[in-house]
Amino acid sequence: MQTVILAAGKGTRMRPLTAQRPKPTLPVADRPLVAHVADAAVDAGASELVLVVGYGAAAVREYFGTDYRDVPVTFVSQDRQRGTADAVRAAREHLDGPFAVLNGDNLYDPAAIAELFERGPALAATPVDDPTSYGVVSVADGRVTDIVEKPSDPPSSLANAGAYVFPGAAREWLDVPESERGEHEITDVVERVVAESTLSLVRVSRWLDVGRPWELLAANEWKLDGLTRDVRGAVADDATLRGSVVVEAGATVEPGVVIEGPTLVRAGAHVGPNAYVRGRTLLCEDVEVGHSVEVKNSVVMAGTNVPHLSYVGDSVLGRSVNLGAGTTVANLRHDDQSVRMTVKGERVSTGRRKFGVVVGDGAKTGIDTSLNAGVVLGAGVCTEPGECVLRDRLE
């Protein structure tokens, strides 16, 4: 089964984490987000991976190369992001039979992808509490009968999960008109498949659209929960590792450190002494966690320094960030409401009672900086010593 993976978008809702890299390459446990999608496809029997790239294409190309897990990889470019049907159309000349389409920024239940490949033509959907923000699927006798994009009066609770197997004829059905949003929508292709053939429904038990920073945190929580204890790095005799902790070869854990799983400490990372790391935390390659630091339920990307006497909770730190000693992150509102964050100029709820900060690549805090819950620091931003940051600092 040829599998088209859409990985060309700019990831604007994930800013500042995507200011200098494409969203599909953001880390989720031990690999980029898009690699989890590719793995699900390969496990389901993909014969070729066709990756549609655009923004930050070089990073995606570098990771996958010409083959991935013995499956050939082809790259095609979508120079302007004009919708999902347009993205698949960019891959059309490489398709010669039934083909799958998967979003490169979604996490799927792998069993559902295997079922999708077996039952195609098929569409994956999952029940959601509020379907008005999704494409909503109507079903009869296990078959898709209609799909409506973001309806005010949803016909069902089944949201389109962005995973499809199309018949070979759909290769010629990708030239769809622009929607009211100015995009060429894959849902128009789905409607044509429904009209021309049978489209089976595959129900996805677990699915996550990783579009915003707190969803990247949720993606890591999901995948870190699957860790199995594996300690290959240098761990001091009086360090304490509890539960499903992975310390990769080349990582160092100093005396007095306590790590509670699920936690992944990647190669080159250095923790301690006397640090406390807990609660579904990812410490990427070459991260430095200093003396008496606590890191809880967070993603800390490659080359970042969290030096002594600092606290980071429920947060996402980009690459090569440097937190001054004594930096403290707030992650809980006093009114006990969900933490809110600004996304593309709009203040929205994260849906999380506990959420800290999002820090872009290369940002730095002065010593004794305090960062309020929901604050965003842009790439390369610096704070002053002793500063209390209550609002986003994007430049």
Describe the protein.
Helices cover 15% and strands 33% of the residues. With 395 residues, it is α/β, with parallel strands linked by helices. The chain folds into two domains: 2-209, Alpha-Beta Complex (Spore Coat Polysaccharide Biosynthesis Protein SpsA, Chain A); 223-389, UDP N-Acetylglucosamine Acyltransferase, domain 1 (3 Solenoid). The strands form ten sheets. Strands 5-6-4-1-7-12-9-13 form an eight-stranded mixed beta sheet, sandwiched between helices. Strands 15-18-21-24-27-30-35-38 form an eight-stranded parallel beta sheet.
The CATH class designation of the largest domain is: Alpha Beta
Helix content: 10-25%
The largest sheet, given as strand count, sense and whether it forms a barrel, is: 8 strands, mixed
Q: Low-confidence parts, pLDDT < 50 over ≥5 residues?
A: none
Rounded to the nearest angstrom, the radius of gyration is: 22 Å
The rounded distance between the terminal residues' Cα atoms is: 46 Å
Name of the CATH superfamily of the largest domain: Spore Coat Polysaccharide Biosynthesis Protein SpsA, Chain A
Q: What is the CATH architecture annotation of the largest domain?
A: Alpha-Beta Complex
Structural class: alpha/beta
Q: Count of DSSP E strands?
A: 39
What are the salient characteristics of this protein?
UDP N-Acetylglucosamine Acyltransferase, domain 1, 39 strands, Spore Coat Polysaccharide Biosynthesis Protein SpsA, Chain A, 6 helices, globular, alpha/beta, 2 domains
